[in-house]
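Regression test attached.
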Amino acid sequence: MKSADKQNDLLNGLIVREQEPLNLEMPFSTLSGFTTPNESFYVRCHFPIPEIAAADWRLKVEGEVEAPFELGYDDLLQMEARTVPATLECAGNNRIFLEQKVKGVQWELGAVGNASWTGVPLSALLARAKVKPGAIEVILEGADEGEIANPPRPAGKIRFARSIPLSKAQDDVLLAYEMNGEKLSATHGFPVRAIVPGWYAMASIKWLGRIIATSKPFAGYYQSIDYSYWERTSGELPTLRPLAEQQLKAEIARPENGAAVPASATVKVHGAAWGGAAEIAKVEISADDGRTWSAAQLLGEPVKDAWRLWEYDWRTPATPGPQTLMARATDSRGHTQSPARNADHGTYMISHVLPIRVEVR
Amino acid sequence: MKSADKQNDLLNGLIVREQEPLNLEMPFSTLSGFTTPNESFYVRCHFPIPEIAAADWRLKVEGEVEAPFELGYDDLLQMEARTVPATLECAGNNRIFLEQKVKGVQWELGAVGNASWTGVPLSALLARAKVKPGAIEVILEGADEGEIANPPRPAGKIRFARSIPLSKAQDDVLLAYEMNGEKLSATHGFPVRAIVPGWYAMASIKWLGRIIATSKPFAGYYQSIDYSYWERTSGELPTLRPLAEQQLKAEIARPENGAAVPASATVKVHGAAWGGAAEIAKVEISADDGRTWSAAQLLGEPVKDAWRLWEYDWRTPATPGPQTLMARATDSRGHTQSPARNADHGTYMISHVLPIRVEVR
């Protein structure tokens, strides 16, 4: 968002998945480095984008706190700030790969990006508000709102909101007002966006307006009917859980899906890997439908809550024809991406190994 | 279910709301006394009715228990039994009255009945299994199963299941094998149906097969996506809650909706009232769209967890024309039925005052 020519910036180079609400995807083949430029960062909206003037913005801190308060934009800017990297991924990223088609924005590979976020730790505001001993969660509410079309739905307009455990809220959640050193754009949540590191990005509430400590588990629309999945716990019975942590995943950026590559050549395969509760330990590539795997080279150094770029020199076959490339990640605790889709995850958490089709010519 | 002519018994006198799965309603105008005869009792099914032979039936008690076990039908019959009355009401009863039409079985007034249930207290089985200190809920699972059609849905077939707080499970839940002194019919859950007094009947699991103590809150399909409602708690934000306790309600049985009554006559208005956490203290009738209310006479004595019958002598007007009758209940804690529908309750908990239209001739 550098110029006043907002319309062009918004669409320039980004795939328009939906106009209203605005949903834009980065073509993942344009992955250019550790930091995703702001103008290339995917945009996910649920409702019309709230246009909020900095001077009008108020953030309320309330609920199960001893000292509820509110503050303005300048108040926040005067507090001690931190800058942290965080990879945000939409929980529906890769949805286009699901064999059984599902509803929802048909993201391919680029509903993910990595940025450096500057703002105030949520813990500082919670400390000031003095959270009561009974509180267990913190609800973050955005200013974006609308009516849900299909039941089960609450009556009237609702605002986008999400809760996180109090322990997470007091740990590493940031109330960000800068993205890669620039003021947030309206599309990315101006004036303030919460950044919940390591979680799918639906938790990183944009246009933040209210912080509510609560002593009861919150089961808002966007963590029950939507943005949830089925877990098999007690007696293998499916139980609904809110989406939370990003799942371990490697994605191939180049060659892109459908690309042509020369025969008998060395082709650089580029990509990124992220997610999981531990560091990326290994990324492997298979060009034979998963029968054999070869280690890719991890680039740079591991950065907490951020993706790891990788590359691999692929010696293409001499014979022309279709080929499938696959990448899979393993983390430092030994977890590896699953080859198969878990249907209990519904339309979200698509983290199995994906096939990228290329044509050897 | 007295004769072998099951098909006729099933449909005889009951309104067929759905054939597959079988959903039958008692015409509420046939309300004949405190106890609903078995053959008049409404039938609610979600899947095909499991045909289970007593000799084949096993009940498993497992999960967060020290001593998991299973038992058979004869084992259960040899345990100390109790007989308790309980009014069961479908959480979607009265759905046909909703002005904004919603999906689901279009029950009018008769998805409710009162019976006397004989069986073994769940507490006895839990005591034998030695529930672990960390357990907080007990899941009851039926043998009825099927696949959910629309997302968000778990993968594959699921069984109908519901959890209740451990405290409720240890209090008054009954594992019933008799209904009004007769063996349960297949339609009512043979061999064994749980009876969860005071709760909407989706909690009273039919064809019971498994009891699972759990240390995590259970959010199964039938207490999250279905059989749930929106509550406004923290900061007025809607949060999804499983349906539980029956809501306070009075229903008019006679004159029935659409009936003709003579002018300048005394017409007996009959009905029942139930629900709420306290005794029915008062039922009132209005024949003038709720402007004035007159007390009906409560019949019999209050019985815990059962409905209270009532009647009222209505002096009909001299002038022919349409009239609306309304009944409203008040409990001993002073709660009165709301005149207006709460849209956050979705397709369930329809407990506002309903208009019964009659024609004075």
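Expected vs. actual: identical. Confidence is low (pLDDT under 50) at residues 1-10 of chain A.
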